[in-house]
Amino acid sequence: MLKTNPFRRRITFEGIKNDIVYCGPQLVHLYINTNCNLRCEYCWFHSHLSDLKIEGRILAYEKFKEILEDCKKLKVEHIVLSSIGEPSLHPDIEKMINDIKNAGMLLRITTNLTFSKKSLLKAFAKVDQLAINFSAVDDESYRAMYKPLDKSNFSRVIKNIYFIAKVRARFKKPSIEMRFIITNNNFKNIPRALELYRDLNVDYVYFTFMDDTKYNKKIELTGKNKLVLKEILAIQAKKKFTFRTNIFDIYESLANYRNCAFKLRRCLIIWERISVEINGKASLCCHNENLTVGDIYKDNLRNLWFAKKTQKIRSLGKYSFNLRNKIWKSCKYCFAAEQNHFYEKMLDLSIKK
Ligand code: SF4
Ligand code: SF4
């Protein structure tokens, strides 16, 4: 999680408390392309287990600039560049990184870090945080899981992480976050993955369960294997790591709530962020397709953020959140539970006062 200005956070929180938004979003999540060079088995879009064919599309650089101008006016703090694919494949990614950093915003990119172009690696080294999709522990498990067309990808990712870590040692950024998606095929590798991440000197290791779709159901963790995983996590959770990790939360979630990673009672995160997809769909959560608020090709970011319809959805998150309701179904894999808990705690405290 990138650091947020506490004053800004306070204003967002006052808004949550009083059912009104006083400021623009803290974070804007931009999807910039749909093509990928990997076929990760757990991927919703490009899995080698699926027959889905995703048309390669990109967010036009002009549209990106327009959205960025709106972000400046709304005093957005963080931009996340990600995609229904691999953002480094966008032809204007280096320009986008420079534009965002020149605008003084914090930047996070989600990536598989497989590229070899030097200028791209240098551009990526300027961002504030890299979230790296990397759930394998060696070349063999990487090839089986990601089916890369380029067979040297595993070693290239490792090389790139070493380079980024060197930059970080000098400039204190980017912070390096590893994302390990747990499936039936890789859960036994968790202890080795933790050792590898330690050797790579990363900052944060984030485990999450695979989001199931009809394509990847066959690699979903089975009940029997959940018990084995529980034992593995129990041992690992007692260890001291050189990085931050949510391994204890994952252990707890497995013990108490089965697939649901955290016991969510409300969604308050949608009061601080908005995401925009290539087709123009603006939504309050990139993970929950039921929270669409409009179309960026028909209206601007400011209008969409402050619209009555948007406010109505935020109120649903605050007052009518229920994982059994189909609107919130996908929230059982919420990726932002930590931040949600932060606002929840503040809200509970303010109600008690
Ligand atoms: S790198 Fe990301 S987008 Fe590409 S196949 Fe893997 S999970 Fe999907
Ligand atoms: S996935 Fe998390 S952040 Fe998104 S709507 Fe659900 S609870 Fe909120």
Write up what this structure looks like.
With 353 residues, the protein is of the alpha/beta class. A ten-stranded mixed beta sheet has the order 7-6-5-4-3-2-1-8-9-10. β3, α4 and β4 form a beta-alpha-beta unit. α3 runs parallel beside α4 and α8 runs antiparallel to α9. The longest helix has 19 residues. About 1% of the residues have low confidence.
Counting copies of identical and different chains, the oligomeric state is single chain
Number of strands: 10
- Topology as H/E string? HEHEHEHEHHEHEHEHEEEHHH
Ions and ligands: iron/sulfur cluster
- Which range best describes the helical content: under 10%, 10-25%, 25-40%, 40-55%, 55-70% or over 70%? 25-40%
Helix count from the secondary structure assignment: 12
Q: What's the end-to-end separation, in Å?
A: 28 Å
**Tertiary shape:** globular
Give the radius of gyration: 20 Å
Note poorly predicted spans.
257-261
Q: Main β-sheet: number of strands, strand sense, barrel status?
A: 10 strands, mixed
> What is the structural class?
alpha/beta
Strand content: 5-15%
Taking all residues together, what is the mean pLDDT? Answer: 91
Widest β-sheet, arrangement of strands: 7-6-5-4-3-2-1-8-9-10
